[in-house]
Amino acid sequence: MDKLWILQVTAVFLSAIILLLYKNSYRFRSKHRRKPLPLGTLGWPFLGETIEFVSCAYSDRPESFMDKRRSMYGKVFKSHIFGNPTIVSTDAEVSKFVLQSDAKAFVPSYPKSLTELMGKSSILLINGSLQRRIHGLVGAFFKSPHLKAQITRDMQKYVQESMANWSEDHPTYIQDETKTIAFQVLVKALISLNPGDEMEFLKKQFQEFIAGLMSLPINIPGSTLYRSLQAKKKMVKLVKKTIQARKNTSGISNFPKDVVDVLLSDTSEQLTDDLIADNMIDMMIPGEDSVPVLMTLAIKYLSDCPAALQQLMEENMKLKRHKDQLGEPLCWSDYLSLPFTQNVITETLRMGNIIIGVMRKAMKDVEIKGYLIPKGWCVFAYFRSVHLDENHYDWPYEFNPWRWQDKDMSTCNFTPFGGGQRLCPGLDLARLEASIFLHHFVTQFRWVAEDDTIVNFPTVRMKRRMPIWVKRRGDP
Question: Which biological process, per GO, is one annotated for this protein (predicted)?
Fold first, then answer.
């Protein structure tokens, strides 16, 4: 009898649990009935679809991974890459929504090796008021006419010094030359460091540091990540010495000459010397990576498009002759006033996709355009697929600067510098530096480019560093 009673109670108890689970499952389905996960597959256990993504990324059509799934599942789909369940967006409107959302909805998400190298105080990782303060201070300084004038003087100087050493007897490697120029210009704007022994030391350490950004997250002596972290410590020490010297001697300038001055002028206790030094290192990345690649790719595309090169050369020659007649040097507004030059830069940004996309982590369940992005999942806003979408651009794989003559660059279909609160603050300076380099290059040289190919992963670069044979204009 007791056994029968126990069995009955157990049956009732199990029935209650089953009913409760059913109700909870029903409630979950009801709750998300109008908010389904995007279609797609999570791939293999643990590995997900990372191997296929990386394999495609190394090809000449990195977007093929996205194109294949977009044809099956739509512009927004689920996947599993780099160890995380991920919603991939190749939809411009969805990506815009993610980029413009605040930290309550999405925060930056990066590979573990990168987050360890950058540190918790990096502008790439911090959120909220501190991120807005630093981004606002730096962004306002980068837009200032004073800095643009300084960048123009420095860029002209370093470009001329570099080009004076170019020989017609052996190839010039454009990628190497532009990296040297851009790094010097940016470090001067950040910490007022001029070329010399300290600059060479900083550049050597920085190259060691940047090698670990996409490395395996293994921090043991001898590993790439370990060497990168050691290199960063050396760079931080150098930058902190600069910060301390600034405090002890000249004090904080009312008219900032560099980003260190800008951040030291903030009275917030949150902007410590360590935070400022760490962020100076992070802000050097465009000088080694994105800005030089922009200039290099422009030369690559122009070499393959004689009509565009001819029009660019004529536009810049006309400006040079005009300024020579007036006896005036070129100023930053002169370079940015050349419409076709700006179209060439814009088209290079669209085709080159130096920043292929950004990753964010959902801090809560988010619904957009009928899709559910679950809390804890990553979102990969993939710019490259948008920039090469034939629905947005006719003949998207054709270098065509003329397409921008009547096209709006402010649409969500064109996001080479990201968007929202984390829009790259140096976008105007990148255009200015590229404009100055192109002006002096096409007005001083003719050239023949050797065959080279674009590598798209883990960063965009030329496989052979873009070798060209130059001949100075005016020579017989």
Answer: stamen development
The DSSP line for 341-395 is HHHHHHHHHHHH-SS-EEEEEESS-EEETTEEE-TT-EEEEEHHHHHT-TTTSSS
Q: Write out the H or E segment, with its range, that includes residue 54.
A: helix 50-57
How many residues are present in the chain? 476
CATH number at 216 reads: 1.10.630.10
- Domain assignment present for residue 127? The answer is yes
Confirm if 461 and 174 have CB atoms less than 8 A apart. Answer: no
Widest pairwise Cα distance in the chain: 114
pLDDT at residue number 413: 93
Q: Which residues fall within 8 angstroms of residue 42, CB to CB, at 6 or more apart?
A: 48, 49, 78, 79, 80, 85
The answer as to whether 409 is a domain residue is yes
The predicted-structure confidence for 374-409, as pLDDT tens digits, reads as follows 999 999 999 999 999 999 999 999 999 999 998 878
Query: pTM (2 decimals)?
Result: 0.90
**Does residue 221 form part of some domain?**
yes
Is the sign of the CA dihedral 342, 347, 350, 353 positive or negative? negative
Whether 424 has a binding-site annotation, put simply, is: yes
Question: Pairing relation of β-strands 84-89 and 378-382?
Answer: parallel
Interacting residues of 160 by C-beta distance below 8 A, sequence separation 6+: 440
Total domain count, the chain: 1
